[in-house]
Every structure is written in structure tokens, then in C-alpha cells.
Write a structure and sequence with these properties.
The protein has 236 residues and is of the alpha+beta class. The protein has a single domain, classed as Glutaredoxin. The chain is 43% helix and 14% strand. The protein contains eight helices and eight strands; from the N terminus they run H-E-E-E-H-E-H-E-E-H-H-H-H-E-E-H. The strands form two sheets. A six-stranded mixed sheet has the order 1-2-4-3-7-8. A hairpin with a 6-residue loop joins strand 1 and strand 2. The chain is globular, with a radius of gyration of 17 Å.
Length: 236
């Protein structure tokens, strides 16, 4: 059950006053290259699934573009994420948050989130659409979090597009990113922040922070401080 937005907003304000950093309250078979797992936006419009809908391991990852701990997670596990997504063993639903944005950042986190949704949208013409693969999307995430500027204004649209090209995101989506993206309006990004925080709060109302990984199959928060957590999930 989702919490009312007013409750979520009050919780976020209280937590942000009390804490700093990236937290609101913290201290199978391989899939062939000809049919790779793709990326798609979730039905609620505020998550992005990289990988097969029926992958045996289904994770939800709450992340903030300026969160340094989120960057560490991608640095430590990004290659494994990409590999297991590509083999069809893993799907990750990314749920971006933007609570580290401020007037000084000029919408840094929101712009990165918009670039993610732009990369996830199908491109081209309806009769011959162009899709970003799950592995390409994961590589784009790695590039974005590896090139952070916490507290700053973040990369330009051209720089975001270059990071997408480095990750082999298709040219149509890369072009759209260079144009500033059109996947989410400011109001939609605000709704995304509110909705994804409500979901995150449900996952852990005590230590409500990023990064948080939630196992959608077991319906429990994952202990990402166990260095073998991902291997254990894949092998199980």
C-alpha cells in the first residue's frame, strides 16, 4: 500500500534535516545475441526494467544520480549486472530519485533521470522500432554514475549523449538525449520522485536511503553489504 504523498513529504523533510549524503534517513540459460533482453518502462511509468520480464532474479534498485554510494555500487557490481542481464538471468528495475537536487544543481538529478527514460523509450518508426538492450542501458547507468558531479550542475546534454554513445545506446535515443530528452516533463519528474520515494519508504521506512536493492521475488530488501549478495541470488 502506498503512503499518502503528504506523509512521504513530511518523512523526507524530517530525514533530510537529520542526515546528509545520499540518504533520507540513513546513517538460466543464456539468451542469444540475436534476441537480447531489452529495456522497457514499467506500467506505472516511473521505473525502467533492464532485462527479461521473466528473468529468475528480479531486482528493484532505488538510486539517485548524485549519490556517491550509488556510484560505488555500480563500480563494484556494474559489470556483473550487465553480464547477468545479457544472459537473461537478471532483470533490474531502476527507480530514479532526485532528492539531492537543489537550486545550485539546476535540476542535475532530474536531467539524468530524464536521459534514462529517453534511453529506455523505443525510437524510430512504429513499423520498425529501435530498442535499447538491457545490457546497453546498464552500461549507460554505469557511465552516468561513474561521471558524477555531486552538488554541481552535472553533465550537459551533449555530454549525456556522449556517455550514451560510449554505452552503445542506439543513435536515435542518443540523438534525443542530446536534444534535452522529451521523456519526462518537470511535473512528471516531480511525480516520479514522489511515487518512487513512497515505494522506497515501503521497502524500508527506517533506513530510507539510496542505494537500496529490493528482491521482487522474495519481497525483501537485499543486504548489499554482503560482498557475495549477487552471486548468492543468481545461484539460488
Amino acid at each position: 500500500m502506498r503512503l499518502p504523498r503528504a506523509v512521504a513529504l513530511l518523512a523526507s523533510i524530517l530525514v533530510l534535516v537529520a542526515t546528509a549524503g545520499c540518504s533520507r534517513s540513513l546513517g538460466g540459460s543464456a539468451v542469444g545475441d540475436l534476441d537480447p533482453p531489452l529495456v522497457e518502462v514499467t506500467q506505472d511509468l516511473f521505473g525502467i526494467r533492464a532485462g527479461l520480464r521473466d528473468a529468475p532474479v528480479q531486482l528493484e534498485l532505488y538510486t539517485e544520480p548524485q549519490c556517491t554510494h550509488c556510484a560505488e555500487l555500480q563500480n563494484d557490481f556494474g559489470d556483473e549486472f550487465a553480464y547477468y542481464i545479457g544472459t537473461g538471468q537478471l532483470a533490474i528495475t531502476y527507480r530514479p530519485l532526485t532528492f539531492l537536487d537543489s537550486p545550485a544543481t539546476k535540476g542535475h538529478s532530474g536531467r539524468v533521470a530524464n536521459a534514462l527514460f529517453t534511453a529506455a523509450a523505443p525510437g524510430g518508426v512504429p513499423e520498425d522500432p529501435i530498442y535499447t538492450t538491457g545490457r546497453q542501458f546498464q552500461r549507460f547507468v554505469e557511465q552516468l554514475w561513474a561521471n558524477q558531479a555531486p552538488g554541481g550542475t552535472g553533465p550537459s546534454d551533449d555530454e549525456l549523449a556522449e556517455l550514451a554513445r560510449t554505452a552503445d545506446v542506439p543513435g536515435y535515443q542518443t540523438h534525443e538525449i542530446a536534444q534535452g530528452g522529451n521523456a519526462k516533463s518537470e511535473d512528471e519528474l516531480a511525480d516520479m520522485e514522489s511515487t518512487n520515494f513512497e515505494f522506497l519508504y515501503e521497502v524500508d521506512p527506517i533506513n530510507t536511503g539510496t542505494p537500496t536493492v529490493y528482491d521482487l521475488v522474495a519481497q525483501e530488501k537485499v543486504d548489499i553489504y554482503d560482498e557475495d549478495w549477487l552471486t548468492k541470488l543468481i545461484e539460488s
